[in-house]
Amino acid sequence: MSGYKFRVVLVGWGAIGRRVADLLLQRGAPVAIVAVAVRDLAAVREGLGDVRVISDPNDLAGIEADLLVEAAGRGSVGPWCRAGLARGWDVAVSSTSALTDADLLAELTGLAQANGAQIIIPPGALGGIDALAAASRLGLSSVRHEVVKPALAWAGTPAEAVCDLGSLTEPRVFFEGTARQAADAYPQNANVAVISAIAGLGLDRTVVTLVADPGAVLNSHRIVAEGDFGKLSVVLENRPLAANPKSSEMTGLSLVRMIENRAGVIVI
């Protein structure tokens, strides 16, 4: 196995996909991106080099890989993860809002079980998910997840119907509900709500609050959980991804860590 590289199919060549590929290359990770899946083969894309570019899940039939990483948006999760799991590959889901669809989740889970594969949910922009998931083994009584982003990071979302994002002078809570509701309504901004929910109390018992803050520079998350284990409070302030302020730099870093853990000898 000397010289072996862990083989990855990357679905998506947007801001997150490019960042993941760049960091893996910069860090000299023993990883080979064997294919990149895109929506439009004719579009001009920089940085792909000699990597095979595909646009149809059926194209996976001629590819050998160890892991498929989805980073292309909610609509890509079903078709690409189905195809990867059917080949017996593990799949990592970045656009976790897709998993609020109970039928899709059940289908993907069944495929994973039938083919001896795993569905991996990286922590994304969050920290402390390992502790939250561990605490859930003993029992949780409550989990609350607050997401605060610069006001204009919510542009183009239903938040615009609740408040005038451009004229806010102080933080505004514009949504409070379950993790399922948050991820359904704000699939780009509130993917993380699905992660904290799956780690803890589930999609319908995790309370999510979304805040537009005109004074914020960073994307912040505060998770508070209580249960038989005690009390957990985690606060993160993440730098927005330069190419996509709706996401955080930590989202790409989390995927890099996950891939390197799968490829490495020591796993943290």
TrEMBL record:
Source superkingdom: Bacteria
Residue ranges annotated for the Aspartate dehydrogenase domain, each copy included: 168-256
Gene3D superfamilies registered for this protein in UniProt: Dihydrodipicolinate Reductase, domain 2 (3.30.360.10), NAD(P)-binding Rossmann-like Domain (3.40.50.720)
Active site, UniProt feature: 221
Pathways per UniProt: Cofactor biosynthesis; NAD(+) biosynthesis; iminoaspartate from L-aspartate (dehydrogenase route): step 1/1
Residues binding NAD(+), per UniProt: 125, 191
UniProtKB keywords: NAD, NADP, Oxidoreductase, Pyridine nucleotide biosynthesis
Keyword Aminoacyl-tRNA synthetase belongs to the record: no
Further remarks about this protein from its record: The iminoaspartate product is unstable in aqueous solution and can decompose to oxaloacetate and ammonia.
Family according to the record: Belongs to the L-aspartate dehydrogenase family.
Record's protein name: L-aspartate dehydrogenase
Species of the source: Pseudorhodobacter antarcticus
Lineage of the organism: Bacteria, Pseudomonadati, Pseudomonadota, Alphaproteobacteria, Rhodobacterales
Gene label: nadX
